[in-house]
Amino acid sequence: MPSPKLEPVVLSEQERSVLTGWARRRKTAQALALRARIVLRCAEGGSIGEVAAEVGISRNTVSKWRSRFLAGRLDGLCDEPRPGRPRMITDEQVEQVITTTLEDTPGRDTHWSTRSMARAAGMSQSSVSRIWRAFGLKPHAVETWKLSTDPLFVDKVRDVVGLYLAPPEGALVLAVDEKSQMQAIDRTAPILPILPTTPARMTHDYVRHGTTSLFAAFDIDSGSVIAHHYRRHRHQEFLRFLKLIDDAVPKDLDLHLVLDNYATHKTPTVKQWLLRHPRFHLHFTPTSSSWLNLVERWFAELTTRKLRRSAHRSVVALEADVRRWINEWNADPKPFVWTKTADQILDTLATYCTRINDSRH
């Protein structure tokens, strides 16, 4: 039995319910679960020694949390704030750093560094760095952007996105473009392989061995690709690629091609050929809107997975290597699923235009 000198632990129904829930925890907050079990056992009349023996802890620990509960009830079982160095930077100083970063520039420089901001704000460089990280500020970073000025922008977005989300029946939708000026480059020294604790390494300098252009038509439904290399990048090569597509696709299917506004796609010779082949329907993306053409996403895969870390001693070797990669892709193609509607895209751009229009800069 508890010592007569100890105040008994008496629980309300709500406290008993909360403590029971805490005590049943198996994976999280184990310290709180242990304290709850101590108090529940003390409330049943167990002495400090009995509770210590049953729970498997010291008498001092039982006494501590028994007393904490009697003094603060449930709140007394939670950890108290740990002592430490008092805060040295005020909210006003933090606000001043953020405001200065967003609205001012440091004299002759174009942007703030942690050192220049530390001097201006009268605080340490590490403090400035922590404030910038907390608020996601990166004065050193810059990204490029460009808005299309195409007068038919809205109509073209609805046309292309409509093809992606609801392709016509009995037709094939192909995203078509050219990856021009693909360089056959060879490093001036062999590429060193990856090792434990060491990434693969290659020299920063290289030798050029010529260029080629890859014409590609990406099937948005299956993810397969019709592609061919040409050494030049004129309307003659584009016309030859159209004929290649015509031969590769069954004649009973209409063809809807998504293209950019490159001049070679609109020459009189190409237009005359299209008139003689009415199953071809061309859909042009707005100017400065290559992100609307899904074949660009496939080109990114080609660059990341093949071109960026390859070395070739001739254009022939480059073309053969890319052809092997394309054949492997077509053996197990992966389509890219377009999810955003035209209205969602236009709403996002409208919001962005409002932001930059309201900016002082």
Could you describe the 3D structure shown?
By secondary structure, the protein is of the alpha/beta class. It folds into three domains: 13-77; 92-134; 173-351, Nucleotidyltransferase, domain 5 (2-Layer Sandwich), CATH 3.30.420. Helix content is 44%, strand content 13%. The chain has helices at residues 13-23, 30-43, 48-55, 59-72, 91-103, 114-121, 125-134, 153-165, 235-248, 268-275, 295-307, 315-331, 342-358, and strands at residues 171-187, 206-219, 225-230, 254-259, 280-284. β4 (254-259), α10 and β5 (280-284) form a beta-alpha-beta unit. The chain is elongated.
What does this entry show, briefly?
By secondary structure, this protein is an alpha/beta fold.
Write the layout of secondary structure elements.
Elements (H helix, E strand, L loop, with lengths): L12 H11 L6 H14 L4 H8 L3 H14 L18 H13 L10 H8 L3 H10 L18 H13 L5 E17 L18 E14 L5 E6 L4 H14 L5 E6 L8 H8 L4 E5 L10 H13 L7 H17 L10 H17 L3
Parallel strand pairs: 1-4, 4-5
Antiparallel strand pairs: 1-2, 2-3
Helix pairs in contact: 1-2, 2-3, 2-4, 3-4, 6-7, 8-13
Major sheet: arrangement of strands: 3-2-1-4-5
Q: Overall 3D geometry?
A: elongated
What's the number of helices?
13
Helix content: 40-55%
Could you give the count of β-strands?
A: 5
What do we call the CATH topology of the largest domain?
Answer: Nucleotidyltransferase, domain 5
How far apart are the first and last residues' alpha carbons, in Å? 76 Å
**Low-pLDDT residue spans:** none
Structural classification = alpha/beta
Mean pLDDT level: 85
Provide the CATH architecture of the largest domain. 2-Layer Sandwich
Pattern of helices and strands: HHHHHHHHEEEHEHEHHH
Beta-strand fraction estimate:
5-15%
